[in-house]
């Protein structure tokens, strides 16, 4: 691989991308660097190397391409830390998208290793026929089913009174890939709660994946196709509330309102307003706490919490003092982006680092509101420690 | 990629054996970032290692001494003078995995840490026990204590608490050859022998590689408060700053932003001060809640005669942070003001600040350049950023001329070339203006006592 990169374009709409000043603010923000001490994986390193490649001062060797396109969790924490707003995942996605060999590499990966990406692959075969050989799908589906089982919490929060301020409103549930295909119980739980709130849940209008992962993966065409399908489905349903319970889905869907995807001017605001988290709708719903409740529940904040942290407020109300969340201890789970597939050992190192920070004792639980985080943390949790989506705690 | 001297087969074998797995890095792509720092210079290292034990460092320095291989200590590479650049190749030693807080002793009032600990992380851990490590360079949240000690980092609280050197009680380091030395200790006083601890601090990695630091702790001040003030012009603001000291107040921080610096920050963040203001002061006091409240009132009284055009007191943590974050944004903000900058951190005696500021403004006007000017004026420490476009030869020349004149001006005012960044590579060409040949010779002889073959961070600092 010694192909020239196409020029890098700024995603922030201000002419050319500002140049990284090598200040080092992104290092402590980067979960990969934090977990490994490998500075070459940091956003600073990627921006510095990418620039040298673009200017012809460094060759785009296989090694450089590996650093630049496969070793990023797409968590976006660096963008918040960067005084110039540079976003590592944007850089990585652009490099992936602009690299002619990358799409093929991506499919190969998904097909060969991808349990986790199976829902995407399946949706894509429908949207972009011929891209994904079908024989790979069965194998991937089995892997995904295995992922969905695991040690989920037994319900210990029982709804007592429902907050009915949204009574009679129409809504569709956007369950997301993992709930659709691996954890159908989450969807059942969500539907039960929505019924309790008195919300009129319409049938699934034909949603597909939010496309967030595909964007990070550098497959913008496939992402756009999915985004288009979701917008059409929402329109077909009569533009109702869209209820999500996965932070990454919410993040992905919110981004539609910022991109030129054919939403009409009067729809953009409606899209943003009607995209609501289940936790937000639950509002002042009250719960009885079963005596099987764990003494300590650790809240894991997903990196893709764009637009607020509605889960935390709700969980504090529902779970009370047993819910522990420390603002200075918010590690990334390591699931994100393609790294789970391209460099599983890095992804694992980040997950282990998160568990080391939480240091849960036997009997404690870790809850979160993102499908990817649940999957990842569950796979590394020590014996006796249960990790779950908060929906799983509700009976 | 420009190539560093190649790694011999023997050296490669040694590194792979001593630093197994991913602890040694030799591919040019992975090493690339290790050739740079916040000075934005670059040279390729010969190899990179990430020790996680003192034993590895000892073996490395024994091997490097025997083979005359340059050793380049590297924390987070946030220094701005090129201290981390491997100008003649060599082995970059990342302290990223020497990052443990080994001990916090609330009775001795010391902490023992490895050099790769981020200073802000140490402060957060200490704050939970109501303890306090005072130095706070602007990079405190993302630079390491090893790097802070190597450069004797200053920071905003230096006006009241002193610089990093005043807070390092003991150092464990490995010298070229692999010998482990321990200087100082854990007492807050120590006058036995020459003070090698204080010599090591600020030596810019030229004497040995620090592996442990014992730092001095203080009780965490129970409260802080900040007064932000804007003035019509620089001279009025500096007069008000003098009034603060004359009123008998020793602030915990006293920061100044000149007009161009204020505009630069406004370019990347919302700012609270009025657009027409010509200078801003940020003044912080700390102590007991009652003392802080009283000091805040004193500050307002003391600064009133100068006639601030805007003021904002902040007594909650959030309100204070909002003000101080603006100050921390100055370095990144400055990069938006022009494509290139020459950055100096000259320092003058506190009483000569107004002369220095007027002189710098005159240079800017005469040479038609934008010069950002801000800093820790409680210490007389001025950050001077000469903004220019290096692609324009005339502008580049004018910027160089401005730098020379400003350095000359500050030395004439009995100041120093650098208050806290260090000399590194970028100030080395000017060092003879401040140090006599005898002083430099003495420094070379001191270095030779520690590092006879000159392998530690060579060609830098003095």
Protein described:
The complex is a heterodimer of chains A (395) and B (462). Chain A is of the alpha/beta class and 395 residues long. Chain A contains 20 helices and 10 strands. Chain A folds into 4 domains: 26-100, no CATH class; 104-148, no CATH class; 161-281, Rossmann fold, CATH 3.40.50; 282-393, 3-Layer(aba) Sandwich (Rossmann fold). In chain A, 47% of the residues lie in helices and 9% in strands. In chain A, the strands form 3 sheets. Chain A has a 4-stranded parallel beta sheet, with helices on both faces. In chain A, strands 8-7-9-10 form a 4-stranded parallel beta sheet, with helices on both faces. In chain A, α17 (310-319) links the parallel β7 and β8 (323-324). Among the domains of chain B are: 9-94, Uridine Diphospho-n-acetylenolpyruvylglucosamine Reductase, domain 2 (2-Layer Sandwich), CATH 3.30.43; 101-219, Uridine Diphospho-n-acetylenolpyruvylglucosamine Reductase, domain 3 (2-Layer Sandwich); 223-331, Alpha-Beta Plaits. Helix content of chain B is 34%, strand content 21%. Chain B is built from 15 helices and 18 strands. In chain B, β5 and β6 form a beta hairpin. The model of chain B has no long low-confidence stretch (mean pLDDT 95).
């Amino acid at each position: 691989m010694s192909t020239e990169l196409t020029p890098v374009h700024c995603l922030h709409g201000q002419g050319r991308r500002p140049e990284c000043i090598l200040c080092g603010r992104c290092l402590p923000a980067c979960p990969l660097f934090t977990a490994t001490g490998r500075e070459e994986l940091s956003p600073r390193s990627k921006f510095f190397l990418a620039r040298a490649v673009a200017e012809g001062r460094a060759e785009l060797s296989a090694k450089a391409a590996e650093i630049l396109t496969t070793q990023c969790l797409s968590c976006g924490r660096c963008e918040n830390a960067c005084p110039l707003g540079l976003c590592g995942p944007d850089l990585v996605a652009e490099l992936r998208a602009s690299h002619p060999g990358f799409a093929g590499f991506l499919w190969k990966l998904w097909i060969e290793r991808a349990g986790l990406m199976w829902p995407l692959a399946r949706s894509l075969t429908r949207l972009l026929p011929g891209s994904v050989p079908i024989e790979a799908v069965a194998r991937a589906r089995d892997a995904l089913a295995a992922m969905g089982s695991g040690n989920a919490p037994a319900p210990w929060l029982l709804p007592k009174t429902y907050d009915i301020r949204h009574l009679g409103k129409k809504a569709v549930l956007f369950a997301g890939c993992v709930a659709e295909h691996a954890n159908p119980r989450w969807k059942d739980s969500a539907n039960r709660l929505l019924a309790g709130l008195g919300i009129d849940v319409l049938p699934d209008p034909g949603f597909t994946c939010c496309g967030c992962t595909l964007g990070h993966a550098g497959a913008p065409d496939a992402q756009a196709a999915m985004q288009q399908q979701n917008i059409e489905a929402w329109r077909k349903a009569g533009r109702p509330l869209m209820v999500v319970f996965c932070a990454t889905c919410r993040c992905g869907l919110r981004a539609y309102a910022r991109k030129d995807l054919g939403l009409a001017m009067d729809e953009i605001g409606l899209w943003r307003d009607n995209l609501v988290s289940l936790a937000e709708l639950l509002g002042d719903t009250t719960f009885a706490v079963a005596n099987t409740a764990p003494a300590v529940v650790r809240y894991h904040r997903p990196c893709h919490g764009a637009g607020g942290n509605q889960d935390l407020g709700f969980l504090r109300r529902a779970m009370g003092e047993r819910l522990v969340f420390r603002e200075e201890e918010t590690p990334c789970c390591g699931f994100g982006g393609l790294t789970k597939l391209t460099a599983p050992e890095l992804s694992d190192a980040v997950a282990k680092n998160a568990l080391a920070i939480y240091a849960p004792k036997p009997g404690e639980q870790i809850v979160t509101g993102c499908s990817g985080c649940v999957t990842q943390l569950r796979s590394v949790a020590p014996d006796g420690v249960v990790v779950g989506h908060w929906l799983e705690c509700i009976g | 990629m420009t190539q560093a001297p190649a790694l011999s087969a023997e050296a490669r074998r040694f590194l792979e054996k001593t630093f197994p797995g991913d602890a040694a890095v030799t591919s040019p792509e992975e090493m690339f970032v290790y050739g740079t720092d916040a000075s934005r210079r670059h040279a390729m290292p010969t190899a990179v290692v990430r020790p996680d034990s003192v034993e590895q460092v000892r073996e490395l320095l024994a091997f490097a001494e025997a083979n005359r291989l340059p050793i380049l200590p590297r924390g987070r590479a946030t220094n701005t003078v090129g201290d981390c650049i491997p100008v003649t190749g060599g082995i970059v030693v990342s302290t990223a995995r020497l990052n443990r807080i080994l001990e916090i002793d609330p009775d001795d009032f010391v902490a023992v840490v490895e050099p790769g600990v981020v200073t802000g992380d140490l402060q957060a851990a200490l704050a939970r026990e109501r303890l306090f490590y005072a130095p706070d360079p602007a990079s405190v949240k993302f630079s390491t204590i090893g790097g802070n000690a190597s450069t004797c980092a200053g920071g905003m609280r230096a006006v009241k608490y002193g610089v990093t050197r005043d807070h390092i009680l003991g150092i464990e380091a490995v010298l070229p050859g692999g010998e482990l030395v321990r200087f100082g200790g854990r007492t807050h006083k120590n006058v036995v022998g020459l003070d090698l601890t204080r010599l090591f601090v600020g030596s810019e990695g030229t004497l040995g590689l620090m592996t442990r630091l014992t730092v001095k702790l203080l009780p965490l001040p129970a409260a802080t408060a900040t007064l932000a003030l804007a003035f019509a012009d620089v001279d009025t603001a500096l007069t008000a700053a003098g009034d603060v000291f004359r009123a008998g107040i020793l602030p915990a921080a006293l920061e100044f932003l000149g007009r161009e610096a204020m505009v630069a920050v406004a370019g990347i963040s919302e700012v609270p001060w009025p657009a027409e203001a010509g200078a801003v002061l940020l003044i912080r006091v700390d102590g007991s809640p009652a003392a802080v409240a009283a000091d805040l009132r004193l500050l307002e009284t003391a600064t009133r005669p100068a006639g601030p055009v805007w003021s904002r007191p902040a007594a909650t943590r959030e309100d204070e942070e909002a003000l101080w974050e603006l100050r921390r944004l100055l370095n990144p903000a400055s990069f938006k003001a022009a494509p290139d900058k020459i950055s100096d951190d000259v320092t003058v005696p506190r009483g000569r600040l107004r002369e220095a500021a007027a002189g710098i403004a005159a240079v800017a006007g005469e040479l038609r350049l934008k010069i950002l000017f801000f800093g820790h004026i409680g210490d007389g420490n001025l950050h001077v950023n000469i903004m220019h476009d290096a692609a324009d030869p005339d502008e580049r020349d004018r910027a160089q001329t401005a730098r020379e004149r400003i350095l000359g001006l500050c030395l004439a005012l009995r100041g120093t070339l650098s208050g806290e960044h260090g000399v590194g590579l970028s100030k080395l060409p000017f060092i003879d203006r401040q140090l006599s040949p005898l002083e430099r010779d003495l420094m070379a002889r001191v270095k030779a006592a520690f590092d006879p073959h000159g392998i530690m961070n060579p060609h830098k600092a003095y």
